[in-house]
Recover the amino acids of this structure.
């Protein structure tokens, strides 16, 4: 049994490998070689009036490995002048610390294989999904990127785009000038391409071949009037675009569908914050703390998914002037199994990670 921290993950996981293992795992979905359960969140009120506790879990299996991803977060939603939430923030214990784990098990004999810190793996997994969708749908001659957002997810999004297309120039916008300037400087040095920080989202998007939104905003950040023929668009969350933007897309492909077939009720909702499936504790007054994303929610349930395109059941891009959109939500459990399994195998090969005695995890009492 290995304990693998973020530094070990960063050492053994490249972006190209991250994209490739997900591609192979997704190819196994139609025939049942890969399988995953949608993410489910449980919300419990805290003693503070501005927060809620959220536990999230998702699991999936591929290539002889089952992964369970667990998250323990206190959620807060800072408000604007009107008191409505502008962004979603989280922490564990105190601001700046987080708790997320990926547990890996063998599907051959059930053995616990590893416990992995999920921070770097999560960022790489999400970036890899952006690369997967871009490889599937973007024009082969796509060279410029318009990026909205400059956090950790934006970094791995851009790394993935560079891995699958000949990206030469990037324009990035985010609300804080210092953050977008830092992002431009660091990513230009890391990737060896031109990265320019701009002072408006529209300036980032206009003229780009690929547009990526990677923010924690609770409201849409992309305007339909900025989209141009031939663009490929990616979004980190469903809150970042609205129905008017979606109406401009000629091709819409979802990575997968995470929503459970359940009716909304007092204790279950698919409209709370960024949760696809939320079981909610607390009184009616406490539940009023939970935000619902503003703007018209886009229904992606009827969209074709990645596997529909690779199996020929749905077309991808068929013309250079089409505006394509890849929604990087879905099949999360399979992604964690694919990427986590690769990290585990590489850690074994390189002899990194902390070995833990099996006796801590195996027992003689039948459960």
């Amino acid at each position: 049994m290995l304990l693998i921290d973020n530094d070990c993950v960063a050492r053994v996981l490249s972006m190209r490998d991250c994209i490739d293992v997900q591609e192979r795992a997704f190819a196994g979905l139609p025939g049942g070689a890969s399988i995953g359960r949608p993410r489910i969140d449980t919300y419990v009120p805290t003693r503070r009036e501005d927060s809620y506790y959220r536990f999230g879990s998702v699991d999936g299996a591929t290539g002889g490995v089952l992964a369970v991803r667990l998250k323990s977060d206190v959620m807060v939603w800072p408000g604007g002048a009107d008191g409505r939430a502008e962004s979603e923030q989280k922490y564990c214990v105190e601001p700046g610390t987080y708790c997320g784990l990926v547990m890996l098990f063998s599907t051959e004999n059930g053995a616990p294989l590893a416990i992995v810190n999920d921070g770097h793996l999560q960022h790489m997994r999400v970036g890899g999904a952006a690369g997967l969708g871009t490889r599937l749908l973007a024009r082969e001659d796509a060279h410029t990127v318009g990026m909205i957002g400059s956090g950790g997810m934006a970094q791995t999004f851009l790394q993935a785009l560079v891995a699958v297309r000949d990206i030469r120039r990037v324009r990035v916008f985010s609300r804080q000038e210092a953050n977008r300037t830092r992002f431009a400087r660091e990513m230009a040095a890391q990737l060896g391409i031109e990265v320019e920080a701009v002072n408006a989202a529209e300036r980032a998007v206009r003229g780009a071949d690929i547009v990526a939104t990677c923010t924690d905003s609770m409201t849409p950040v992309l305007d339909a009037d900025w989209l141009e023929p031939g663009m490929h668009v990616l979004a980190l969350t469903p809150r970042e675009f609205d129905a008017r933007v979606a109406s401009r897309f000629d091709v819409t492909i979802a990575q997968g569908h995470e929503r459970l077939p359940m009716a909304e009720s007092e204790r279950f909702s698919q409209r709370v914050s960024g949760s696809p499936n939320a079981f909610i504790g607390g009184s009616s007054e406490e539940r009023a703390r939970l935000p619902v994303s503003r703007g018209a929610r886009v229904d992606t349930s009827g969209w074709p998914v990645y596997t529909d395109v690779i199996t020929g059941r749905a077309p991808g891009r068929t013309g250079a002037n089409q505006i394509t959109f890849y929604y990087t939500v879905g099949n999360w459990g399979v992604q964690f199994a694919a990427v986590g399994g690769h990290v585990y195998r590489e850690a074994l090969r390189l002899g990194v990670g902390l070995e833990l005695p099996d006796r801590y995890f195996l027992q003689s009492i039948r459960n």
User: Anything to note?
Assistant: The chain has two domains: 2-121+333-360, 122-259+294-330. DSSP finds ten helices and 17 strands in the chain. The longest strand covers residues 51-62.
